[in-house]
């Protein structure tokens, strides 16, 4: 239910967004407004306001006289987005390094120990969760709301692609080493090195996805 602090259309937007990220609404799918109204138990007005919001976020595409479609992320989109988010998250690591306290380090030490455990045990789902928490911790530590907002906007778009780059051969171990390099630079107080290591980490993710695409195509060819 919407609260006094959250308009109904915002609540509906959250529900539709969750359906998209969960895969219940597929990329390229035309939304059935009547079915969504029935499913979410709302009228057309708050639903349409919610859809406008999701269009502005880039999750949906509106076509006149047809309706709203779930946006489809292409390889070109990924090629365009990853260098940008690498720059942004690199900057977050740079700013976080300057603000890292002993208390922050104690928390991050534990998080990196858990990340290492997940990698060594082959727990990809656990690794994804801890990886996300660490990235969020760096962004929070950077304490730059404009940086955080822009990164969140791009991450939201990337979630449409349902990326699973850790499934690429050797990627889990590679990702762990990249994370450890980032953190080592932060602990050493080397903001420039932390920034560069974070940029490399994000760009390696894109390369892993490209390898997975190439591998899938080669299997189809066989």
UniProtKB/TrEMBL annotation:
**What name goes with this protein?**
DNA-binding GntR family transcriptional regulator
**Molecular function terms, GO-annotated:** DNA binding
What CDD domains does this protein map onto?
Answer: WHTH_GntR
Looking up Pfam families in the UniProt record yields: FCD, GntR
Domain HTH gntR-type positions: 6-73
State the SMART domains in the record: FCD, HTH_GNTR
> Please, which domain of life does this record's source organism belong to?
Bacteria
Mind listing the UniProt keywords for this protein, alphabetically?
A: DNA-binding, Transcription, Transcription regulation
């Amino acid at each position: 239910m919407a609260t006094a602090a959250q308009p109904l259309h915002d609540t509906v937007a959250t529900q539709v967004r969750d359906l998209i990220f969960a895969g219940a609404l597929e990329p390229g799918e035309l939304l059935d407004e009547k079915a969504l109204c029935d499913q979410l138990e709302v009228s057309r007005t708050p639903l349409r306001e919610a859809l406008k919001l999701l269009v502005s976020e880039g999750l949906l595409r509106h076509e006149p006289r047809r309706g709203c479609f779930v946006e489809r992320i292409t390889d070109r989109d990924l090629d365009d987005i990853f260098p940008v988010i690498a720059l942004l998250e690199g900057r977050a690591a740079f700013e976080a390094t300057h603000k890292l306290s002993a208390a922050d380090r104690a928390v991050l030490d534990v998080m990196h120990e858990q990340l290492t455990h997940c990698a060594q045990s082959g727990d990809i789902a656990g690794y994804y969760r801890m990886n996300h928490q660490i990235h969020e911790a760096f962004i929070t530590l950077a304490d730059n709301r404009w940086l955080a907002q822009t990164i969140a906007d791009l991450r939201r778009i990337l979630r449409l692609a349902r990326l699973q780059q850790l499934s690429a051969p050797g990627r889990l171990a590679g990702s762990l080493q990249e994370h450890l390099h980032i953190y080592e630079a932060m602990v050493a107080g080397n903001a420039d090195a932390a920034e560069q290591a974070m940029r490399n980490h994000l760009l390696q993710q894109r390369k892993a996805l490209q390898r997975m695409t190439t591998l899938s195509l080669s299997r189809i060819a066989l």
